[in-house]
Design a protein that fits this description.
The protein is mainly beta and 126 residues long. 0% of the residues lie in helices and 49% in strands. Strand 5 and strand 6 form a beta hairpin.
């Protein structure tokens, strides 16, 4: 499975961006898809995940809950991250990730995802 993330950029605090991650080479509808982010000098942190089963249930990090929305379009093999009311603390490289056998309890663990995209930089100015 290959993942290609896009949509990053520079935005002012309070603004919005939508990230996209296009998948190829696998059965997209059976992949759980996640977004993680890594700020300079920090670890890679969980942002959001959407499962392929259970009606595509979603989970979010507390820091983005209510501001970010993850969604997927199985017809386009693409997962999205709509980011609203962005804050300078959201500045990071954002990575999409995928896994075909993600356990319910592992959705926030980066090392449980098998496939990763190259990352897209989001910079939020104050």
């Amino acid at each position: 499975v290959q993942l290609q993330a896009s949509g990053g950029g520079l935005v002012q605090a309070g603004g919005s961006l939508r990230l996209s991650c296009a998948a190829s080479g696998g059965t997209f509808r059976r992949l759980s898809m996640g977004w993680f982010r890594q700020a300079p000098g920090k670890e890679r942190d969980f942002v959001a995940v959407i499962r392929w089963w259970s009606g595509g249930s979603t989970y979010y990090a507390d820091s983005v809950k209510g501001r970010f929305t993850i969604s997927r379009d199985n017809a386009k093999n693409t997962v999205y991250l709509q980011m609203n009311n962005l804050e300078p603390e959201d500045t990071a490289v954002y990575y999409c990730a995928a896994d075909a056998s993600l356990d319910f309890s592992d959705y926030s663990l980066a090392h449980k995802f098998e496939y990763w995209g190259q990352g897209t930089l989001v910079t939020v100015s104050s």
